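Key result, reporting period 2: structure in, sequence out.
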């Protein structure tokens, strides 16, 4: 079991208007997940997305632009 904590960040494309999500990619190697949370509710729920699913999501978003 790892005790590594998520290092949260928002996208550099975020306009900082408060309607953002934060991700913590530092847990991919140790846990195989990318935690995602609402930036307005720091102590709220966290969704752990598998690294493969998150990678697929990002690739799909990139293809949309």
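The corresponding designed sequence is given below.
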């Amino acid at each position: 079991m790892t005790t590594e904590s998520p290092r949260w960040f928002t996208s550099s494309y975020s306009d900082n208007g408060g309607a953002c999500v934060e991700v913590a990619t530092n847990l991919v190697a140790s846990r195989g997940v990318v935690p995602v949370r609402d930036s307005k509710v720091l102590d709220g729920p966290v969704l752990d997305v598998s690294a493969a699913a998150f990678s697929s999501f990002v690739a799909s978003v990139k293809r949309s632009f």
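The two ends are 39 Å apart (CA to CA). The CA atoms of residues 10 and 16 lie 9 Å apart. This case is discussed further under Risks and Mitigation.
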